[in-house]
User: What shape does this take?
Amino acid sequence: MIPREVIAVADVPGGPPLRLVRHGGDHIIMLERNELMSTRKSGSEKALATMTCERLGQRKAPHLLIGGYGMGFTLRAALGELGADARITVAELVPDILDWARGPMEALTDGCLDDRRVEVRIGDVGAAMEAGRYDAILLDVDNGPDGLTRPANDALYSMAGLARAKRALRPGGILAVWSAGPDPTFTRRLGAAGFAVDEVKLRARENGKGPIHVIWFASLR
Assistant: This one.
């Protein structure tokens, strides 16, 4: 049996620390006993980007906001879908996550943070929403609308948070939210906030296996 090795620890503002764990050739980011993300289960995080870009269609010079970076699966997938005129702002609350991307996970990062289309902001994604307008906002800052990493994340999914996201979206924009599982209350809240909602269930792994994750694609009516 291959042992798990903790290779780094990161402080989370307002929440418990994150641990970067190496397991053979794989990496896992853990919160206490919870596995937040893993190099073995990247399918739904990639789909967050690819399915959003499909819904946006052929927009000229689209600007996407991704919160947060995680292991970069969503960012790399978005870069693969978008043209040279696109812009992507990545909001990451935990600076150590980006240090991990340039350090022990450098091979996985594959230079995506240095792409000229990418701007990285250290801080809460809510602040990035206030600072600009976007064609799409992609949220994967926690295990879903029921915050796990830190209580303050709940505000992103509240009625006030959804209203802020609406103000930050350009006409025809999309709010895409990743979750480790379904949340009927959040689905209803999106509708009450004035979004047209498409809830998609998909497997965690690209091969169609693993637990079922959920992505909400909420578009402006």
Remarks:
- The chain has seven helices and eleven strands.
- The chain has a mean pLDDT of 92.
- Residues 50 and 96 are 26 Å apart (CA to CA).
- The two ends are 52 Å apart (CA to CA).
